[in-house]
Amino acid sequence: MKAICWQGVNKLSTENVPDPELRNEQDVILKVRYSTTCGSDLHLVGGYIPAMEAGDVLGHEFLGEVVEVGSGVRKHKVGDRVVVSSFIGCGRCWYCANDLWSLCDNGNTNPGIGSALFGYEPGGVFGYSHALGGYRGSHAEYVRVPFADHGAFPVPDGVDDRSALFASDALPTGWMGADLGGVRPGDVVAVWGCGAVGQMAARAAMLLGAERVISIDRYPERLAMTERHVGSETIDYTATDVGAELRERTGGRGPDVCIEAVGMEAHSPGVEYAYDQVKQQLRLQSDRPTAVREAIYACRKGGTVFVLGVFGGVVDKFPLGAVMNKGLTLRGAQQHGQRYIPMLLDRIAAGEISTRHLITHELPLEEGARGYEMFKQKQEGCVRAVFDPALAAPGTTS
Ligand SMILES: NC(=O)c1ccc[n+]([C@@H]2O[C@H](COP(=O)([O-])OP(=O)(O)OC[C@H]3O[C@@H](n4cnc5c(N)ncnc54)[C@H](O)[C@@H]3O)[C@@H](O)[C@H]2O)c1
Ligand SMILES: [Zn+2]
Ligand SMILES: [Zn+2]
Fold it and tell me: From the alpha carbon of 219, which atom of ligand 1 is closest?
């Protein structure tokens, strides 16, 4: 089958790889209908996440049709249309039982690699390096889904494929930021990043009762998309001082909840960008925490900062003094999709959440490298490039 493979830093190619097979009784094999690029993949493509090997198949946010079912699977049958959580949870360990699915003790079959690299044992996720399980990803014609009774969810008839796709990762991630960030009715919430994750976090904050939601980015098309489809106010961080602007809009107090949906490759117009970039390139720090710093300084005293953006290791110039003296709650997590996906599919069906607009480009698997380049550089207004394995390669007919 065809699949988009990582071949080294900033090198991708579409290759023929062996079809997946059932390996455990709780597996299903899915014929992929759509699989989307995600900001998390950029950290892999750029070489910021270690333990990738040439030939690894990318992709973790997907939906498809069940074509084979393991003998232990109870909830799915051949022909079902399902969306799958990007993080893999066994459904039985202490963490899964406590709804902390991305922390599952059994989802990552290689926990020692993460432990040696990062000092902790990360969970397992599709297509996300050998440190996070070494699973083949979903940018392929077929994908093996372990623990399918727990991680795969039927898509309601009223929800089309393109909308349901984002219930895999971007939407539950955003929802989790607002939910575990403790958004309450009447709150003012600020969200850094107008990618798919940030847009979904902003929408979730609204649905959880926030009185005002303010989204921050620099790309005019992303800011306009967020205003139109999410309904939040926006700030272009290149045009103003974000901290001052947030104080201005909140009567001097600052937002109650600040959600960071940017991650380790944050951009900044200020001098600190050069500082962070040099240290990151020299591997003196693994991550650029610009937006986290800004969120900590902007948040009101006693408020909460929730980090949705992915960070791998250590950062420099972290304002611990502000966290402590301002009485902040600082949280973060990889997404606990299994906890939210059915509820979110119902909300999409009810028209409360729009996701389909996030797809700006649909491409065949053969255009993996081009799709990622466009997504990375935010060219042609790209918010999410989505791969459809049924599309014909350029220059051919299907
Ligand atoms: N926690 C999880 O489980 C989880 C799941 C999915 C994605 N993520 C992470 O969420 C982050 C966002 O993902 P995405 O798919 O939306 O990515 P994306 O690349 O599409 O969006 C990131 C956005 O952040 C903006 N940005 C950069 N620097 C900024 C700054 N200083 N202030 C404000 N905005 C800034 C960029 O312009 C861009 O629009 C990534 O780090 C990704 O790894 C986490
Ligand atoms: Zn993702
Ligand atoms: Zn588990």
Answer: 37
End-to-end CA distance of the chain: 15
Q: What is the pTM of this model?
A: 0.96
* Ligand 1 atom at shortest distance from the alpha carbon of 222: 39
Write out the chain's pLDDT in tens, 398 residues.
999 999 999 999 999 999 999 999 999 999 999 999 999 999 999 988 888 999 999 999 999 999 999 999 999 999 999 999 999 999 999 999 999 999 999 999 888 888 888 888 899 999 999 999 999 999 999 999 999 999 999 999 999 999 999 999 999 999 999 999 999 999 999 999 999 999 999 999 999 999 999 999 999 999 999 999 999 999 999 999 999 999 999 999 999 999 999 998 888 877 777 777 887 787 777 778 899 999 999 999 999 999 999 998 888 889 999 999 999 999 999 999 999 999 999 999 999 999 999 999 999 999 999 999 999 999 999 999 999 999 988 877 65
Nearest CA, atom 20, ligand 1:
195
**Nearest ligand atom owner, CA of 94:** 3
C-alpha torsion sign, points 91, 140, 51, 331: negative
Which ligand is closest to the CA of 310, given by its number?
Answer: 1
181 lines ligand 1 (CB under 6 A): no
Nearest residue (CA) to ligand 1, atom 14: 39
Using CA atoms, how far residue 291 sits from 22, 35, 63, 216, 353, in Å, is 42, 28, 31, 10, 25
Q: Which residue, judged by its Cα, is nearest atom 7 of ligand 1?
A: 40
| Residue type present at position 151 | G
CA 97–ligand 3 middle distance (angstroms): 7
- Residue 94 CA to ligand 3 center (angstroms) comes to 7
Classify 66 as helix, strand or coil: strand
Atom of ligand 1 nearest to the CA of 37: 15
Residue 366 makes CB contacts below 8 A (sequence gap 6+) with 2, 14, 393, 394
